[in-house]
Amino acid sequence: MQLLSVASEIYPLIKTGGLADVTGALPGALADHGMAVRTLAPGYPSLMSRLGRAKSVRRYDSLFGAPASVLAAKVGELDLLVLDAPEFFNREGGPYGDPTGTDWNDNWRRFAALSRVGADIAAEGVKGWRPQLVHAHDWQAAMTAAYMRFGPAHAVPKVVTIHNLAFQGRFGADVFAGLGLPPEAWGVDGVEYYGGIGYLKAGLVSADAITTVSPTYAEEIRSPAQGMGLDGLINGRADRLHGILNGVDTTIWDPTADGLIARHFSARSLAGRTANRRALEKHFGLDQDNAPLFIIVSRLTWQKGMDLVAQAIDHLVGLGGKLAVLGAGDHPLEGAFLAAADRHRGRVGAHIGYDEPLSHLMQAGGDAILIPSRFEPCGLTQLYALRYGCVPVVARAGGLADTVIDANEAAVGAGAATGVVFPPADPLALHGAIARTIRLHGDRAQWQAMQRAGMRADFSWSHSATRYAALFRSLVQGAA
């Protein structure tokens, strides 16, 4: 079965978060089910530099006012179609904003172009290849489904995956004239959204199936509290909604073979974690002792609950813990963590930015990872942590609730506990979770039992890919 994936990020070529990990790993997992995936992605400079030999398979003299072409290339196991549109994507900064973090003011045009090309490929194919199904990821690609619905590819099955409903791609009504859609696309049943245009909304109302990245999140977004204004639409299409938990790429995240960590280890032999811990302490300038070492690998934002952690740092240190932070985000929160590192030298360290190799070392050397998210569609860092014996301390939200078993008395007694779970958005609950984690860490046998239980859990893509494959197959058969 031939599938087209449309995404604004794909690991290891361009990444700002878990979206890239999913779009990079899912094609390989689907190959085991007889499905061949080609991914259409924007030609950012970091991606273009990795292409090597590429062949032009489609050209545009004027794509939303700019010349563009589609390049076919292989990078490792990834089969790519790259939208080479320098006017839109050859820029300094990130995928969505300039070097200061400000969104590009033409993002509506940049990602409409990506989506339009996805729909064109769905309708006409490229050089003898045409997809049987199109899978669009998040708001940046969701308009693919709308262009397909209102164009010649309307009969091709289309799936939209919500990775985070908080990011919807909302723009003013004035851009509608530039989208190249027919007049009937403007309306409640089309791209119109509260008087403007909603890219994710347009994709959700146009899709043949909607997926989210965990079962619990699929239920949460049906409520006004978590639906971000789209709960009515989602409830109206609940029969097309599927919560499919993300997986992890176990070839990249493997403590027995990871080339980015100081020493390999396994669930049977945890001794190698000590060398990783010492390397981690050295990197962050932390005291080299046996105090419980908490880590954070996250965007430093309100959604991730990082304001709650910033307020709890003195509590954590006062109880005897240490903290290493890797992330970037809101400038006040970045400043708060840097100030804490200055205030608690040797006990708190902060690295502002993103560093993929360092994130591996942190999972391999940290004792526990703090993830106090107010909402979390799936979360991948807790899955990496489980695989590396780094005990997750998580809010009971979305995919965190689906993947971490709380160390309550019954779970500990049964040897099933894999982490500490607490109510979200509650500072006192976070304080209590930190204290409980430190107490659990004090019982070496109990702590190692939790580590091993987490490392034995299977969060590979095999189960999730089976569900995606079944869904895709049913849609293609239904369209035949």
Q: Any overview of this molecule?
A:
This protein is 39% helix and 19% strand. The chain is built from 18 helices and 18 strands. The protein has a 9-stranded mixed sheet, with helices on both faces. Helix 9 packs across helix 12.
Please render the helix and strand layout as text.
Layout: E1 2-6, H1 18-31, E2 36-42, H2 45-48, E3 55-63, E4 66-75, E5 78-84, H3 86-89, H4 107-124, E6 133-137, H5 138-149, E7 158-162, E8 170-171, E9 192-193, E10 196-198, H6 199-206, E11 209-212, H7 215-220, H8 231-236, E12 241-243, H9 273-284, E13 293-297, H10 306-318, E14 322-327, H11 331-343, E15 348-352, H12 356-365, E16 368-371, H13 381-387, E17 391-395, H14 398-403, H15 409-414, E18 420-422, H16 427-441, H17 444-456, H18 461-479
Parallel strand pairs: 1-2, 1-6, 2-5, 6-7, 7-11, 11-12, 13-14, 13-16, 14-15, 16-17, 17-18
Antiparallel strand pairs: 3-4, 4-5, 8-10, 9-10
GO biological process, one term: glycogen biosynthetic process
Binding site for ADP-alpha-D-glucose: 15
Protein name: Glycogen synthase
